[in-house]
Amino acid sequence: MRLTRWTWLLTCSTLLILSASGCSLKATFKESTDTTSNVTGTTSGRTWFTEDGLLHPEHKLTAFTTLNRANLEQDLARGEGEYVASLATLLGVPVAQQSIFHAKAQESFETLTDSDHEIQLDQLRMLVR
User: Which of 42, 67, 83, 114 has the least CB density, counted as fewest CB within 10 Å?
Assistant: First the structure.
């Protein structure tokens, strides 16, 4: 059986969310359906992916933060870790300045974990400026 990109994305995000500790099934289902609705309701699959099936660069931050939310929040709270390092790379933070970015991200943890995903992305982008 061949899975479409959206089925694969939904399956992966659902499994990721279900495996996160402290999630209730109701909250997990709501997050999965909200994320899927936001993606499918505002764009078509062709605008998110290239002809080769790769994410367009402008959507990588959204996909990364959505699919890695729990692990990213843990790393942001600590101010270090592979997820916050990957986030810094996605945001274009030079390697020499990543420790400064990690500290800023930790200081901004409360704002960065706001429930509104668009606010989160805007705040992450502002940390780099």
Answer: 42
